[in-house]
Amino acid sequence: MIKSALLYASVSSLLLTSCQPSKASKEKVAVTNATATVKIDSTNSKPADNKTIMARREVPVLCYHQIRNNIASDSKRAHDDIIAPDKFREHMKMLADSGYHSILPDQLYNYLVYGARLPEKPIMITFDDTDEDQFTVGNATLKKYGFKGVYFIMTVSIGRKGRINYMTKEQIKQLSDEGNTIASHTYDHKNFAQFTDWDWKTQIDEPTKKLEEITGKKVAYFAFPYGVYKSSTLHKLKEHGFKAAFILSTARDENYPLYTIRRIIDPGRYTAKNLYYSINKSFNKTKSKQSG
Q: What is the pTM for the complete model shown?
């Protein structure tokens, strides 16, 4: 069951503005994000152990599903997974104005495993389920601010049209060619905790192969449908070629921290201030044992 980030209805405007650049510098944000490079300068080639990975400061990871306006037939539960286009644009502007720099999974992996440097105020922006509005609205908005995204593709939906339209192969290829990361979200959103032996072929291997054929690139990352995982089978994700995997807001598995990287949903009911507060509450916890 998906756990969404809690709503914080009242947030001090001081919290938001204190970390924002001056008005004169805001116009430079998109250029900075677009041109920033990250050097993998770790001098330690030995991979970190699980305890070290768990101790590193968490990087904020946001999760989005549908970017559209609500309609009458939407259930109350569905509202957490729907964000209006105007609100999504407002939230991305807030991230840019606040000095965040988007990163991709390879950067996060190298940080967690090798202690590689990340840009100042790193954040990862992810999208689940292949909805076309993630391309038409999501990608277009990210481009405006020089951000890159991670698109977790449910392959059964590719090219489908209907009440909800889904991305085509051509759109997925374009996202990849433009420097975004294409990753796996199973074939048809089957709950990972209910996988049978056969599902490792139909839900994992075959979707991976299809995405690699579309993009011409290796698919190395996975997001759990519903954010649900089963600890006893996490080791199989590495066996099937994944470097890391993403859950939602539940606790990480201490034995498999790379395969239970936390994300939070940005609900459609959030204001930009709510999102800013939630990011800091969820990820910017400082502990004496944390490093990096």
A: 0.85
